[in-house]
Design goal:
The chain is of the alpha/beta class.
């Protein structure tokens, strides 16, 4: 029989690798006291569900494993390493990871001087005995690992904050540290009782249905037809519908989502009957509200009502116009004389409407002069002493807003994060750009902090991409006659074939496309398996002026595969950006090379980068180099240097890697609001493909658009209704109900 080996887990390579349970993890052999037997005796353990049961493998656990040991040759970054691999026939958890108490001590500021390293050292030294030592206030024993001062502070803080029973219970029930931390923070010492009463409360902490259902059934013996399970499935279905963009839903929609979650019912049980009881209970306790659009979860209802109420307040006030008609005309003359811009009738109507109404939507497609209107409108606001606050959803949009108007602009997230009471005192207007992509969550948060005297102007194009998040705001406003709208229709910025094709797609008409790759607008049909290769070759013809825009990240027309092909085509022999791999104790590639186009995927304001910023790697460090801040302290490790699209050269540091990826091909969502001379759009059948996505992609181009792939799928998407029309929302109904007493305020050309 193979001898037993005790391994301390260092990394978990795969949890449930083939969908049948089990795990693949690495570690080092330890003895009964936890001392490393041989630092070089690194092992890989492959354990099936049969071997480890339903347990979840975590870093720091000790596992006693038994099974045949084989040696495998593993290539790592050009090197061949020998791994000892244990095919575990038996695996017993010898010591839990202690992640709950480790994170509890490390994350809580009350435990000064205890970080993750020291907390893990305590657990490695004492294991579950650590709880007894903390409860007993045994600072002297703890001082064998910590300094006496830190040990004394630890036991004093533990008296006030320690929660041994709850932490041990979380560990025993198989909670991972991430979920356990959320549960403990919310319920505190009541966590055990509250979760045992209803394990499906865990769904509120962003745990997945499979994880919660497994815990409920394995750890808390919940039966298949337990009412708590059915109610939990209804809650999960609501979360999923909300994640798909709906803020209202029919009971039939819920049934379609709930039944697959519950699976096959026990004998004699009908899920339809169970669901009816769960919905009735939800209506009784206020979890759901029934309205004209069907059921609304309470949270969605509250957000939409808050938005509707904020708009209604501004429309219901009978305030005098900011300026008279003649004064507005004087501003229009001023714009013509000083800026050399002749405002058309639609743009003039927008100025009159903004002076008249405290809430206004200004819409229009690409190139119709929305920015021109804003600059002229700000002259009106300046004349009456109205302070202008500019916000946009994305960092690049806020940056463009600032550059176009010469006034400060911030993202919605930044505005909300920095908002303080009294910040918007006095006459103020908030202008929200790219409003078509703003969801009800962001809009309700804005309405929640804005004082009622602040005017609101929403600017956007409902024919472009809808919000990634739930609900519809700008789209819903257009369905309510009482809401004042001005639509700009005359294209000024560009014309010709691109404008004609974009205009046709915008209204659901399939345009005539050339099949000549030299034409201003062309569609080059090809089979799915040839799309990626074709796109890369087209990009190579004029890489400096081109950008690939995709609907999806995966598949033959997705950003992931295209970026890999582009890197192979344009940077295969270039220097690699490398970092140190602690697991294999060697250097490894981070997946980037000299000359690569890269994309920033998060707003990094301190570095001057926004979500969507593009750059080129222009230098690679031979070895990571220390980066020093203004005080001379080390602030990071420089791996390479990137020249970004604002012309600035910035270091690419180790801590930026999670926020930077290849950017030869990016999604249309990332591109919204940007422009390039030449655009290449791969097209395949996809649930994300609709006319708004194609329209948005086309209007990113200045001189040429090339669509490549499935022309039939593109044509069907253009002729079909936009995906936004499929979203079930109730904001329009809430607005209409509040606005029944308000006369229709659609402005005419004179406002």
């Amino acid at each position: 029989m193979n001898p037993s080996l005790t391994v301390r887990v260092a990394t978990v390579r795969s949890q449930n690798p083939r969908g049948f349970g089990g795990a693949i993890f690495t570690g080092v052999p330890v003895n009964d006291s936890g001392a490393v037997v041989d630092a070089a005796a690194y092992v890989v353990v492959r354990a099936s569900r049969l071997a480890i049961g339903a347990a979840r493998v975590e870093r720091g656990q000790w596992w006693s494993v038994r099974g045949p040991v084989v040696e495998r040759q593993v290539p790592v970054n050009g090197f061949v390493m020998t791994e000892r691999q244990v095919e575990a026939e038996e695996a017993v958890l010898a010591r839990p990871s202690g992640e709950h108490v480790i994170t509890f001590l490390a994350d809580n500021p009350a435990f000064e001087g205890i970080g993750t390293v020291k907390a893990r050292r305590l657990w490695d030294a004492f294991g579950e005995r650590l709880y007894d030592l903390l409860d007993a206030g045994d600072a002297s024993t703890l001082a064998t690992v910590l300094t006496p001062e830190v040990a004394q502070r630890l036991v004093l803080a533990w008296v006030a904050l320690g929660d041994t029973r709850t932490l041990q219970w979380l560990q025993a029930q198989g909670f991972d540290a991430r979920l356990g931390r959320k549960v403990l923070a919310f319920f505190g010492s009541e966590a055990r009782q509250r979760i045992e009463d209803d394990p499906y409360r865990l769904l509120s902490f962003c745990a997945g249905w499979k994880e919660v259902d497994r815990l409920a059934r394995d750890q808390f013996a919940v039966e298949l037809d337990d009412p708590r399970r059915v109610q939990g499935a209804v809650e999960e279905a609501c979360y999923r519908l909300f994640a798909d963009g709906h803020t209202a839903m029919l009971s039939a929609d819920l049934m379609d989502r709930v039944v697959p979650l519950l699976g096959k019912p026990p004998a004699g049980v009908r899920w339809r009957d169970q669901l009816a009881a769960a919905l009735s209970s939800g209506l009784d306790n206020g979890t759901f509200i029934k309205g004209q659009h069907g059921l609304q979860p309470l949270g969605a209802l509250v957000m939409e009502r808050q938005i509707a109420q904020a708009i209604h307040e501004r429309l219901a006030r009978a305030s005098a116009p900011l300026l008279s008609t003649s004064e507005i005309e004087h501003v229009i003359d001023e714009v013509r004389v000083t800026d050399g811009v002749e405002l058309n009738e639609e743009q003039r109507a927008a100025l009159h409407a903004a002076a008249k109404h405290e809430f206004l939507c200004i819409t229009g497609g690409a190139g119709v002069g929305k920015t021109t209107v804003l600059k002229a409108l700000y002259r009106v606001y300046d004349r009456v002493g109205l302070r202008v606050v500019q916000v946009a959803l994305a960092g690049r949009a806020a940056k463009r807003m600032h550059e176009a108007t010469g006034r400060p602009a911030s993202t919605i997230a930044s505005f909300l994060r920095s908002y303080e009471e009294g910040q918007l005192e006095g006459p103020t207007v908030l202008v929200l750009d790219e409003a078509s992509m703003v969801d009800v969550i962001s809009m309700s948060r804005i309405c929640g902090v804005l004082p009622s005297h602040v005017r609101l102007v929403l600017v956007g194009d409902p024919h472009q991409l809808m919000p990634v998040g739930p609900g519809l705001v700008l789209h819903a406003m257009g369905a309510v006659p009482a809401v004042p709208f001005v639509e700009l229709k005359t294209v000024k910025r560009y014309g010709g074939a691109i404008a004609a094709a974009a205009s046709a797609i915008r209204v659901g008409r399939w345009p005539e496309f050339s099949d000549d790759e030299a034409a201003p607008v062309a569609f080059l049909p090809c089979r799915d398996e040839l799309i990626a290769e074709t796109v890369v070759e087209l990009l190579a013809l004029d890489r400096a002026n081109s950008q690939v825009l995709c609907a999806v990240r995966n598949g033959p027309a997705g950003t992931k595969g295209l970026n890999a092909l582009c890197q192979e085509r344009f940077a295969a022999r270039a220097s690699e950006v490398r970092k140190w791999n602690d697991e294999f104790d060697c250097e490894e590639s981070v997946g980037l090379r000299l000359g690569d186009t890269v994309l920033c995927t998060r707003n990094l304001w301190a570095l001057g980068l926004q979500n969507g910023s593009l750059g080129t790697i222009v230098e690679v460090e031979d070895m990571p180099r220390a980066l020093h801040d203004g005080a001379g302290d080390v602030s990071g490790a420089v791996l390479a240097w990137v020249e970004w699209d604002d012309g600035q050269r910035r270091p690419l540091t180790l801590d930026m890697l999670e926020d930077v990826e290849l950017g030869y091909a990016i999604t249309v969502h990332k591109a919204q609001g940007s422009q390039w001379p030449r655009i290449i759009v791969p097209v395949t059948q996809s649930r994300l493909l609709d006319r708004t996505l194609l329209y948005t992609a086309l209007t990113r181009a200045q001189t040429q658009v090339l669509l490549v792939g499935d022309a039939g799928a593109a044509r069907a998407a253009v002729l079909a209704q936009p995906r936004a029309n499929e979203r079930k929302v109730a904001l329009d109904l809430h607005l209409a109900k509040l606005g029944q007493s308000i006369e229709r305020k659609q402005p005419d050309l004179l406002g």
